[in-house]
Design brief:
Number of domains: 3
Subcellular location: Cytoplasm
Number of strands: 29
CATH topology of the largest domain: Rossmann fold
Strand content: 15-25%
Subunit structure: Monomer.
CATH architecture of the largest domain: 3-Layer(aba) Sandwich
GO molecular function: ligase activity
CATH class of the largest domain: Alpha Beta
Bound molecules: adenosine-5'-triphosphate, magnesium ion
CATH superfamily of the largest domain: HUPs
Protein name: Glutamine--tRNA ligase
Largest sheet: 7 strands, mixed
Strand order of the largest sheet: 12-27-28-29-25-26-13
Number of helices: 13
Family: Belongs to the class-I aminoacyl-tRNA synthetase family.
């Protein structure tokens, strides 16, 4: 599939569900007051102009990675395609691990990706929300559950609770605190909130069914005591809601229709529904309620995406920070040269499914290549330089030129010189050529004692040259290659066609080339499934995943600005590093290699 034709959105089961809901008018009666809220707020609102509402709910405890991109593109794309609204919600109900630094980075990455949370319906309405702003509602909902006999304060120790939960084969055992009166529960819960009990001494639990075959329904915890300063609410609370309690409420307050999450939450869905039904019965929420749907998380080979493992790579300095171009974080991918378009294409192409599977890393790389092929300016660069001396060249350098892009004349023309001393790639010369090698090699004397001339190649956009010899140092390293050029063979002149050569190589002239630091990257792990079967993923880190070289670049690259992307002809796509690149000290990162279509 080419990226020139607009790719049809990968048809997936979520689209089918949404289309069915739209057809049946499942969510047609909802009201929206222009802000999140329970029944009291929303019933005063207008009919919701958004046909559906989806959300991306990151916990601000780390940087976004490629797996999150999948979820963002999915949720944002569905809202966009079905006349809906997309919310960005910080799921910041856990005070311990969350930081403003992560909130800021997530906002910036989302903007860059183009996943906009501005309402398409109401001017100025921003759907950027914080779950911690719903703490009051969550608390009131908990008191309601207690009053309705659906929740109780349990004072068992953590070990007792674990033991009494049972397992897949054994039903659980009721807590001795389960039959407390409503008044006792309410009092205890208010004491918890007032800070009269120690951290961990008791929890609020839902009263559902300790014998349920679904362990998530065996009286799950709703609130815990935790004295910790929260990044948004400070020290206002010493009790915090559990994720499984908070999340459905967050969705409901925001009028989310399709709450899309990854498969590991499938067993939580019955509790999600139970909780929202109870709160609707109590008049705290209006129907229709949000519904949870699960899809398979993105698993990509040769990377890890667990925040804990990524943090370990950073903390233990296996990489140069969260935005190291080898990291699968959004800040890393961006610095590597990935574009929002390539990432969105990747998400569309890999679709959303119900079954877990692995996507090969090359699928991601292919989307970047496809995106940059059509728009990155071309340039010549020599990343592993070897000197080529044109022994019959005398005088002033000759001006040469090439289009910046073969299909885009509007991008203009590049200019560079040809002279006596050039740089070529070390691998474009072989002293003793292997079979089928069509690049430079020196003359030799064959078995019959006859001298066979050295090979001829075209220096792209320049002249045809014939290899005449080379020099080596004492250690046996080739230090320079010698050739003669054919003055009437210049590309674009009538004489050029008189020369038939099998090899074309890239080069730059020592007279105008620009020196640059170039960072060449390879896969970060040597194994496709770095943490498979409990293996320590650090044991399969590729020691050669980053190589820094001093390269010679065509002079047109002297004007590159940070984030500018180029195709270094025959090598791959490169980006001027957004942190370190300056006009005085150019730094380029390798984004992705070209699919190698070059004959030997
Ligand atoms: P991690 O496992 O890396 O800690 P997380 O799921 O805990 O990630 P959250 O911030 O809670 O991180 O995730 C926000 C959203 O991104 C969730 O809805 C989650 O399902 C989704 N998400 C996370 N990882 C992936 C993935 N690999 N593929 C698809 N969606 C993902
Ligand atoms: Mg999570």
């Amino acid at each position: 599939m080419s990226n020139k034709e607009a790719p049809a959105p990968a048809s997936n089961f979520l689209r089918n569900i949404i289309e069915r809901d739209l057809e049946q008018g499942t969510y047609a009666q909802r009201r929206w007051a222009g802000q999140p809220g329970g029944a009291v707020v929303q019933t005063k609102g207008e009919p919701d102009p958004a046909k559906i509402r989806t959300r991306f709910p990151p916990e601000p405890n780390g940087y976004l990675h490629i797996g999150h991109v999948k979820s963002i593109c999915l949720n944002h794309g569905l809202a966009r395609d079905y006349n809906g609204a997309f919310h960005l919600r910080f799921d910041d109900t856990n005070p311990e691990k969350e930081e403003q630094e992560y909130v800021d980075s997530i906002v910036e990455s989302m903007r860059w990706l183009g996943a906009d949370w501005t309402s398409p319906f109401a001017q100025g309405e921003q759907h950027l929300y914080y779950a911690s702003n719903y703490f009051d509602f969550m608390y009131a909902a908990a008191e309601y559950l207690i009053e309705a006999g659906h929740a109780y304060v349990d004072e068992q120790s953590a070990e007792e609770m674990r033991a009494n939960r049972g397992d897949f084969t054994t039903p659980g055992t009721n807590s001795p605190w389960r039959s407390r009166t409503v008044a006792e529960n309410l009092q205890r819960f208010r004491e918890m909130r007032a800070g009269q009990h120690a951290d961990g001494s008791m929890v609020l639990r839902a009263k559902i069914d300790m014998a349920s075959p679904n362990i998530n329904l065996r009286d799950p915890a709703l609130y815990r005591i935790k004295r910790a300063t929260h990044h948004n609410t400070g020290d206002a609370w010493c009790i915090y809601p559990m994720y499984t309690y908070a999340h459905p409420i967050e969705d409901a307050l925001e009028n989310i229709t399709h709450s899309i999450c990854t498969l590991e939450f499938e067993d939580q869905r019955p509790f999600y529904d139970w909780l929202l039904e109870r709160l609707a019965e109590g008049g705290l929420l209006t129907k229709p309620l949000p519904h949870q749907y699960e899809f398979a998380r993105l698993n990509l080979t040769y990377i890890v995406t667990s925040k804990r493992k990524l943090k370990q790579l950073v903390d233990e300095k296996h990489v140069d920070g969260w935005d190291d171009p080898r990291m699968p974080t959004l800040v890393g991918l961006r610095r590597r040269g990935y574009t929002p378009e390539a990432l969105r294409l990747f998400c569309d192409r890999t679709g959303a499914s119900k079954a877990n599977s692995w996507i090969d890393y090359s699928v991601l790389e292919a989307t970047l290549r496809e995106d940059l092929e059509g728009r990155a300016a071309r340039a010549m660069a020599v990343v592993k330089p070897l000197k080529l001396v044109i022994t019959n060249f005398e005088g002033e350098p000759v001006a040469c030129s090439a289009p910046a892009h073969p299909q885009k004349p509007e991008l203009g023309t590049r200019h560079f010189q040809f002279s006596r001393e050039l740089w070529i790639e070390a691998e474009d010369f072989m002293e003793a050529p292997e079979k089928g090698y069509h690049r430079l090699y020196p003359p030799r004397v064959d078995e019959a004692g006859v001298t066979v001339p050295g090979n001829k190649v075209r220096l792209k956009y320049g002249f045809v040259v014939e290899c005449t010899g080379f020099k080596k140092d004492e250690a046996g390293h080739i230090t320079e290659v010698h050739a003669t050029y054919f003055p009437d063979s210049k590309s674009g002149t009538p004489g050029a066609d008189n020369y038939k050569v099998k090899g074309v190589i890239t080069w730059v002239s020592a007279t105008d080339a620009v020196a640059a630091e170039v960072r060449l990257y390879d896969r970060f792990f040597t194994e496709p499934h770095p943490d498979a079967g409990g293996r320590d993923f650090l044991s399969v880190v590729n020691p050669k995943s980053k190589q820094v070289v001093t390269a010679w670049l065509e002079p047109s690259l002297a004007n590159a600005k940070p984030d500018d992307k180029f195709q270094f002809e025959r090598i791959g796509y490169f980006v001027a590093d957004r942190k370190d690149h300056t006009a005085e000290k150019p730094v380029f990162n390798m984004a992705v290699g070209l699919k190698d279509s070059w004959g030997k």
